[in-house]
Write a structure and sequence with these properties.
With 119 residues, the chain is of the alpha+beta class. The chain is built from three helices and six strands, in the order H-E-H-E-E-H-E-E-E. 20% of the residues lie in helices and 29% in strands. The strands form two sheets. Strands 1-4-5 form a three-stranded antiparallel sheet, with no helix packed on it. A three-stranded antiparallel sheet has the order 3-2-6, with helices on one face. A hairpin with a 2-residue loop joins strand 4 and strand 5. It is elongated, with a radius of gyration of 21 Å.
Length: 119
Protein backbone atom coordinates (compact mmCIF):
# COMPACT_ATOMS: atom_id res chain seq x y z
CA UNK A 1 0.00 0.00 0.00
CA UNK A 2 1.40 3.39 -0.98
CA UNK A 3 0.61 6.29 1.33
CA UNK A 4 1.19 8.87 -1.40
CA UNK A 5 -1.03 7.20 -4.00
CA UNK A 6 -3.14 9.75 -5.82
CA UNK A 7 -1.43 12.67 -4.11
CA UNK A 8 -0.88 14.49 -7.38
CA UNK A 9 -4.60 14.36 -8.10
CA UNK A 10 -5.58 16.38 -5.04
CA UNK A 11 -6.75 19.93 -5.73
CA UNK A 12 -4.82 22.94 -4.48
CA UNK A 13 -6.11 23.41 -0.87
CA UNK A 14 -6.23 27.18 -1.28
CA UNK A 15 -8.56 26.89 -4.29
CA UNK A 16 -11.62 26.30 -2.11
CA UNK A 17 -10.84 29.33 0.02
CA UNK A 18 -10.58 31.53 -3.06
CA UNK A 19 -13.71 30.05 -4.60
CA UNK A 20 -15.67 30.56 -1.39
CA UNK A 21 -14.58 34.20 -1.16
CA UNK A 22 -12.08 33.98 1.70
CA UNK A 23 -11.82 37.10 3.81
CA UNK A 24 -8.67 39.17 3.60
CA UNK A 25 -8.38 40.85 7.02
CA UNK A 26 -8.36 44.62 7.47
CA UNK A 27 -5.03 46.37 7.70
CA UNK A 28 -3.20 49.62 7.49
CA UNK A 29 -3.66 51.72 4.41
CA UNK A 30 -0.34 52.73 2.83
CA UNK A 31 -1.62 56.27 2.19
CA UNK A 32 -3.08 56.77 5.67
CA UNK A 33 -1.31 57.45 8.96
CA UNK A 34 -3.36 57.29 12.13
CA UNK A 35 -2.57 59.93 14.74
CA UNK A 36 -1.15 58.60 18.01
CA UNK A 37 -3.22 59.13 21.15
CA UNK A 38 -2.67 62.16 23.34
CA UNK A 39 -0.62 61.32 26.41
CA UNK A 40 -2.90 62.00 29.40
CA UNK A 41 -1.33 64.86 31.41
CA UNK A 42 -1.88 63.13 34.75
CA UNK A 43 -0.23 59.96 33.42
CA UNK A 44 2.71 62.04 32.22
CA UNK A 45 3.04 63.67 35.66
CA UNK A 46 2.97 60.29 37.36
CA UNK A 47 5.49 58.78 34.93
CA UNK A 48 3.04 56.12 33.75
CA UNK A 49 4.12 54.09 30.72
CA UNK A 50 2.85 50.91 29.11
CA UNK A 51 1.45 49.08 26.14
CA UNK A 52 -2.30 48.81 25.51
CA UNK A 53 -3.44 45.97 23.26
CA UNK A 54 -6.66 46.79 21.47
CA UNK A 55 -9.26 44.71 19.64
CA UNK A 56 -10.85 46.79 16.87
CA UNK A 57 -13.91 46.19 14.73
CA UNK A 58 -13.28 47.85 11.36
CA UNK A 59 -16.32 48.61 9.23
CA UNK A 60 -16.61 48.06 5.50
CA UNK A 61 -15.79 51.76 5.03
CA UNK A 62 -12.53 51.43 7.01
CA UNK A 63 -13.77 53.30 10.08
CA UNK A 64 -13.39 51.84 13.56
CA UNK A 65 -16.85 50.82 14.70
CA UNK A 66 -15.73 49.48 18.09
CA UNK A 67 -12.54 49.52 20.13
CA UNK A 68 -11.91 47.67 23.36
CA UNK A 69 -8.94 46.92 25.55
CA UNK A 70 -7.79 43.33 25.04
CA UNK A 71 -4.79 43.68 27.39
CA UNK A 72 -4.47 46.64 29.75
CA UNK A 73 -1.36 48.73 30.20
CA UNK A 74 -2.07 48.64 33.91
CA UNK A 75 -3.01 52.32 33.83
CA UNK A 76 -6.69 53.13 33.17
CA UNK A 77 -5.92 56.62 31.81
CA UNK A 78 -3.56 55.18 29.17
CA UNK A 79 -6.08 52.49 28.26
CA UNK A 80 -8.84 55.08 27.82
CA UNK A 81 -6.62 57.39 25.73
CA UNK A 82 -5.77 54.48 23.41
CA UNK A 83 -9.45 53.56 22.94
CA UNK A 84 -10.46 57.18 22.27
CA UNK A 85 -7.72 57.61 19.67
CA UNK A 86 -8.52 54.29 17.97
CA UNK A 87 -12.14 55.33 17.46
CA UNK A 88 -10.87 58.12 15.17
CA UNK A 89 -8.57 55.88 13.11
CA UNK A 90 -9.12 54.56 9.59
CA UNK A 91 -7.95 51.31 8.02
CA UNK A 92 -8.11 49.41 4.78
CA UNK A 93 -11.28 47.33 5.23
CA UNK A 94 -11.37 43.55 5.08
CA UNK A 95 -12.21 42.17 1.65
CA UNK A 96 -14.34 39.19 0.69
CA UNK A 97 -14.88 38.24 -2.92
CA UNK A 98 -13.45 41.61 -3.97
CA UNK A 99 -15.91 43.58 -1.83
CA UNK A 100 -15.17 45.49 1.39
CA UNK A 101 -16.63 43.90 4.53
CA UNK A 102 -16.38 44.48 8.27
CA UNK A 103 -13.58 42.67 10.09
CA UNK A 104 -11.52 42.63 13.25
CA UNK A 105 -8.00 43.82 13.85
CA UNK A 106 -5.66 43.66 16.83
CA UNK A 107 -3.13 46.40 17.47
CA UNK A 108 -0.91 47.73 20.24
CA UNK A 109 -0.43 51.31 21.40
CA UNK A 110 2.74 52.11 23.29
CA UNK A 111 2.94 54.97 25.75
CA UNK A 112 6.55 55.86 26.53
CA UNK A 113 7.99 58.96 28.12
CA UNK A 114 10.93 59.75 25.87
CA UNK A 115 13.24 62.05 27.85
CA UNK A 116 14.12 63.04 31.39
CA UNK A 117 11.96 66.17 31.38
CA UNK A 118 8.87 63.99 30.80
CA UNK A 119 9.38 62.16 34.09
Amino acid sequence: MRLDAGLGALPDPSFGARAMGAVVPPGTDAGQRNAPPDYPPESRRRGEEGVVRLALRVGSDGSVEAAEVAVSSGHPRLDQAAVEAARRWRFRPAMQGGLPVAGTLSTAVQFRLTDARDR
